[in-house]
Design brief:
31% of the residues lie in helices and 26% in strands. The protein is of the alpha+beta class. The protein has 2 domains: 5-145, 2-Layer Sandwich (Fructose-1,6-Bisphosphatase, Chain A, domain 1); 158-270, D-Maltodextrin-Binding Protein, domain 2, CATH 3.40.190.80. The strands form 4 sheets. It has a 7-stranded mixed beta sheet with strand order 3-4-5-6-7-8-9, sandwiched between helices. Strands 11-10-12-16-14 form a 5-stranded mixed beta sheet, sandwiched between helices.
Length: 286
């Protein structure tokens, strides 16, 4: 990694974060200028998402034209698969919270080299929290070193859960064992685990690489561990960026959590199911 890559990321991510704050209203619905619409059911998109994506793409790809690009808000280009280094970007992770005026969203940028994140930053502009890390060099929050928690007992551990997953009842079985708090953005969840405020987070619902790429490096550099439900390591810049599960802990709690989840089934892939039903309906109409 170039010594300047992390500086490039943090500069770009702050500019994107500042841009999206123009539409944000704390505790209130986002400004009408944000032009809220939906890409699919329960999958909103705003003008702010697109502006942040444009800013990040312009800054990062102009500075590193040989790197690939993978972003939630950019049409995927298969040429990234032939690149040794790839930007993996989520312009706003937690768009629903952003729209509702809840300060639990973040801009997320990771730089991947041969499948592994080597530099990353997650920025919550509403809280003015910039988490950044480079592989083998540790992690900082607004320039100060941070570390995961030291808890070793799973029962009673603090855990961040998806707000939508909680509403669907997917976390009911864990509420007597864990101290569960809800949060929308998985990138910000991972950052919160990295700084030791809570002990862990996990999801058995499908996620995409851009949701957790940067956060994975943050947790690992803070002393934590990130895997899939079966314990296999995460990797990036794959042909299909979707994964079926993700676990992130402070480190000591990882094996106990893996053991606890062995017999817990994965959640339904609702987006895939909806897409299949839509295609079936379209086929029957033709």
């Amino acid at each position: 990694m170039s010594d300047n890559d992390l500086t490039l990321i943090t500069d770009a991510i702050r500019k994107a974060g500042n841009a999206i704050m123009a539409y944000y209203r704390p505790g209130e619905t986002v400004s009408s200028d944000a032009e809220v619409r939906h890409k699919s059911p329960d999958n909103p998109l705003t003008k702010a998402d697109l502006e942040a994506d444009r800013i990040l793409h312009e800054i990062l790809t102009q500075a590193r034209p040989d790197y690939g690009w993978l972003s939630e808000e950019t049409t995927d280009d298969a040429s990234r698969l032939s690149k040794d280094r790839v930007w993996v970007v989520d312009p706003i992770d937690g768009t629903k919270e952003y729209i509702m005026g809840i300060p639990q969203f973040a801009v997320s940028v990771g730089l991947v080299e041969n499948g592994l994140p080597i530099a990353a930053a997650v920025y919550n502009p509403a809280a003015d929290e910039l988490f950044s890390a480079a592989r083998g060099q540790g992690i900082t929050l607004n320039g100060k070193p941070i570390h995961t928690s030291s808890r070793e007992e799973l029962f009673g551990a603090t855990c961040l859960a998806s707000r939508s997953e909680t509403k669907r009842g997917e976390w009911d079985q864990f509420k007597d064992e864990l101290k569960v708090s809800t949060m929308g953005s998985i990138a910000y969840k991972l950052a919160v685990v990295a700084c030791g405020r809570l002990d862990m987070t996990f999801t058995l619902t499908p996620k995409n690489e851009w949701d957790f790429c940067a956060g994975t490096l943050l947790v690992e550099e803070a002393g934590g561990q990130v895997t899939h439900k079966d314990g296999s390591p995460v990797s990036f810049n794959r042909t299909n960026p979707k994964v079926r599960s993700l676990l992130a802990t402070n480190g000591p709690l990882h094996q106990p959590l893996l053991d606890r989840l062995v017999d817990v089934p994965l959640s339904i892939d609702r987006h895939a199911l909806a897409a299949a039903e839509k295609a079936k309906a379209a086929g029957s109409e033709s």
